Structure formats: structure tokens, C-alpha cells
């Protein structure tokens, strides 16, 4: 097992490891992070950070240290509705809830970084805004904090930063300028007709046939309407209609999920989808209702800020450890809301948290959102803390 001591970056203090394991054992779902927030609050009490509840169950922690830039650093607080199967001694004590996306690591590392910066004030200068954000997994937390006066006491930040765990080997940092995570939009489509007996279809108005035609034709959007060099995904993953083989249903309901990097591609997916849905509804003589379920913009890493982040990380982990992922990632994160709302540059990077030996074994390594997702028990915190501190010390000068 590779230890942080053998890898050049310092081990995490026991207090941060203890905090991580405590958060891991007590996960809370999106928007219900009461204990988590109280735990962070307690850990930062006694530092010079000004603490303010923000955005429901979030916490804004402002640490001032003389003149200099203002940097926001986001750590998400929430866990997932998943029953943990890691066998870890500090596994979740809450049935059906688990920190399977590593937000406990993000939170422990930012808390630890703020404690260190509070104690080492000659190592930096400026203002750090710790953004302990609720409800990342539901896409609601960033907006909730922005709507609740985040950055009001500090003024607009110069940059917003964040890090996220990934299932790469421990000590591997994935940093990429430009598009990093995709946008994500989803809709619920309800097609309403007139139900009836299966033996007399001419007396009914069948919504099922039209809904099926819609789903089939939606597949032509990416293949026929989007530049093949542009990333675009359009998926229908749920479809519900009917209760019995001899009853024509009055309604068919399905959901559409779309992802893209460039906003113009995302808009193309949306308009093409709506055109097809309305066209097919007219052709079938049925009614149509389209409701947006979710929408998140893509995450764009500002190239200049990204270079500073990559340089700071390379200084700690070595240039060979810091590399862009081969492609932007098709996941999404409401971290994009900060840059969108504030009009400031932002950068988020990923750090690997699994023992390299696991990856070398050739076996499938459990990824984020898997009930077996188990970051390295000490190394993951060490990497997250060392990375956060390196970037903050570089940016806050
Ligand atoms: Zn997640
Ligand atoms: Zn996550």
C-alpha cells in the first residue's frame, strides 16, 4: 500500500483524518446536512474564520488575512441514498445513506486547509471564502448559497476553486483547461390522448404510438443535427405507459436527458428536441406537456487560472502526477453556477484516491456513486489537503 510518507507530500494531521472518518460515518442527504454543518462549524470555531449559515444547510466561512485577492473554495457536504458496502471500520452508520462521491473528503480537506491557513498566516495573504455547500447531488446547493448572500461581505471573488475525488490512483491529479464537465438538462414529457378498448383503436387517440415515435426520432438529433466533432448526448432512460394488454392508455410519460459542453450545442439539443416533440404530437393528434426537471451549465476551467492550479499541484506532487484527463468528463456539477452567476473565473480539478496497487491489479476499481467506493484510508485526505493548500497558497499572495 502506498503511503503519503513515501510519496513526497505530507501526511494529513490526525485531527483531519478523524474529521473525515466522522463525516464518513455520519452521511446526510442533500439539503439535510445539519450534523455535517455543525461538525464543520465546531472544527472551525476557534480559528479566525467568520462563520455564517448560508443557503439552507450550507456554511460560509470567511478567513481574512490582510490585503490581497479574494478566493472562494467550494466543498460539497452531501451524501447519496445508497447502502454502503465497503466493510470499512468507519463505514456509514446510517442505513441507506453513504458518502459514495467523496464529499466527506472535500469537506474534511477544506476544513483542514482553513485550520492550517489560520495557524500559518505568514504563508499567505488575502481573503479565503470557504464555501461549504449543501445539495450538490441535487444540483440545488450552489444557487441556494448564491441567493443567500454568499460573498456579500467580501465582494465578488477573484476566482472560485474546488476539487473532486475520482477513482484514479492516489496522487494522480487531473487538471484540464477549458471544458471540464458537461452541462446537464432533463425533461419530463407527458403525451396525452384518449384511452379506450384495445379492440377499438379508432375510438381512442393512442398516446403510446406517438410517444414511441418521439423516442425513436429523438435519436436522430445527435446523429443528424450536431457537428460530429462536438460532444452531445441525448438519452431517454424512462418510459411509462399502460396497465393492461387490452387497454389503450390515456397517457404516456418519458424522460429525456441531454449533455453537452458548448452552450450552443446544449441549446441545439433543446430546440431540436422540442421541435420533434411538437411535430410528432401534431402528427399524432395528441396533447403534449414538456417540463424541465433539471438544468446545470457545463464547468469551464479558466485557462490562466488553470495554469496556476496545475503549477501549484505540480510543485507538491511532481509534474508527472499532474495531467489532463484524455477528454472532458461527461459528468456534471453545480460548481458551474459560481462562474455563471458571478462572472468570475473558476477551476475545479480531480484527485485520485485509490491505492495504485488496486489499479495495477487490473481489477475493476469501484468508482464514485458505487456502494463499494472506498478511498485510501489515509492517503486520500493527505492528497486532498496538500492539493488544496498548495493551490490556495499560490493564489492567495
Ligand atoms: Zn456525485
Ligand atoms: Zn460529487
Automatic annotation (TrEMBL):
<dbReference type="InterPro" id="IPR002933">
    <property type="entry name" value="Peptidase_M20"/>
</dbReference>
<protein>
    <submittedName>
        <fullName>Amidohydrolase</fullName>
    </submittedName>
</protein>
<feature type="domain" description="Peptidase M20 dimerisation">
    <location>
        <begin position="186"/>
        <end position="279"/>
    </location>
</feature>
<dbReference type="Pfam" id="PF07687">
    <property type="entry name" value="M20_dimer"/>
</dbReference>
<dbReference type="InterPro" id="IPR017439">
    <property type="entry name" value="Amidohydrolase"/>
</dbReference>
<dbReference type="InterPro" id="IPR011650">
    <property type="entry name" value="Peptidase_M20_dimer"/>
</dbReference>
<dbReference type="InterPro" id="IPR036264">
    <property type="entry name" value="Bact_exopeptidase_dim_dom"/>
</dbReference>
<dbReference type="Pfam" id="PF01546">
    <property type="entry name" value="Peptidase_M20"/>
</dbReference>
